[in-house]
Amino acid sequence: MMNLHDYVKRHYMAGDYQEQASAYRENDKNVLSDYELGYQQATYDHEKGRTFRIYPYRVILLLNKISGGRLFEIVEFIRGYQDKKHDKHYF
Fold this sequence. Notes:
mainly alpha; 2 domains; 5 helices; 0% strand
């Protein structure tokens, strides 16, 4: 998994994905942060009557620290999801 991450990062830093990234941004003007995506997912789950998902937040935090921040996007998604999940409007 780390080899894949390093491969993508190496190509990203070399600018190999620049054309695709700008095309993506043009097509999707409403780009949300990872936190907002997690918050939005929790809202969707609640509105559809689904049970909230359980994410191993503390484990992901530890793995993020060990990996030097490589799981930051996942941490932010879970944080957004949990913030919405624990929103006082749902109690």
